[in-house]
């Protein structure tokens, strides 16, 4: 599959810049485009409320360009990410499980961890949001559930997470991980698509709006597991303590 990650400056209230980025991603043959966390409303306290016009707009964009869109928005008291199929159908909604800091905890309710796994480009793809990736149990659980790609909208100011933890999560679970960050004051950019061997397939700068594109194939995933299959080699009976 071909993955597009849109690193952008929020807000993009009417998804005008997202549509332009989506058109470029589709023209490049991408199967999916991933936005930053809360890209349309902007990330930061006081957090904006949900925009009832955003989901129909996202569905319109996905259908017009025949590409899956994974986009983050506030919804029903949660930070969420939706996956919208290339025909404009809402495939599912994920609610952020791990909230970051007092501002998020004051404004939102954490999700219960129910995963969102959808088929994109012939691969099983899971959706998480930002801080979730910093908990190894989250990505490991998705890998054990059969996910081969993880798509993560984020709004991050700690470049070490993007440069260290994200490739590590990909490598230790032998999956690809696409991480779409915001830019501007309070954000570090450095969006990345990491392959199943932990190698950076493409990386964005610190303060530029960019569209990253990279390919991940079943062969890539199988070659990584052939080098060392952490999932198969686990000994969970020894972890009980």
TrEMBL record:
InterPro entries xref list: Aliph_Amidase/BUP (IPR050345), C-N_Hydrolase (IPR003010), C-N_Hydrolase_sf (IPR036526), UPF0012_CS (IPR001110)
Domain CN hydrolase: 1-218
Transmembrane segments: none
Natural source organism: Actinomycetospora endophytica
Lineage: Bacteria, Bacillati, Actinomycetota, Actinomycetes, Pseudonocardiales
Family: Belongs to the carbon-nitrogen hydrolase superfamily. NIT1/NIT2 family.
Record-linked PROSITE patterns: CN_HYDROLASE, UPF0012
PANTHER family recorded: BETA-UREIDOPROPIONASE, NITRILASE C965.09-RELATED
Keyword entries, A-Z: Hydrolase
Name recorded for this polypeptide: Nitrilase
């Amino acid at each position: 599959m071909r993955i597009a990650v849109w690193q952008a400056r929020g807000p993009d209230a009417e998804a005008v810049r997202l549509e332009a980025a989506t058109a470029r991603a589709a023209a490049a043959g991408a199967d999916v485009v991933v936005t930053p966390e809360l890209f349309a409303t902007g990330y930061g306290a006081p957090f904006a409320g949900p925009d009832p016009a955003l989901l129909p707009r996202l569905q319109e964009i996905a259908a017009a360009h025949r590409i899956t869109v994974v986009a983050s928005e506030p919804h029903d008291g949660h930070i969420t990410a939706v996956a919208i199929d290339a025909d404009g159908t809402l495939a599912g909604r994920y609610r952020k499980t791990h909230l970051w800091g007092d501002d998020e905890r004051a404004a939102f309710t954490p999700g219960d961890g129910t995963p969102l796994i959808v088929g994109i480009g012939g691969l099983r793809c899971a959706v998480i949001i930002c801080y979730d990736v910093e908990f190894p149990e989250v990505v490991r659980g998705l890998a054990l559930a059969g996910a081969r790609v993880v798509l993560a909208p984020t709004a991050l100011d700690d470049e070490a997470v993007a440069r260290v933890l994200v490739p590590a999560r990909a490598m230790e679970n032998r999956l690809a991980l696409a991480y779409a960050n915001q830019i501007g004051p309070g954000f570090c950019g450095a969006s990345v698509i990491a392959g199943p061997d932990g190698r950076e397939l493409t990386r964005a700068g610190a303060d530029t709006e960019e569209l990253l594109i990279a390919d991940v194939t079943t062969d890539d995933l199988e070659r990584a597991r052939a080098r060392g299959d952490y999932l198969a080699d686990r000994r969970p009976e020894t972890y009980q303590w």
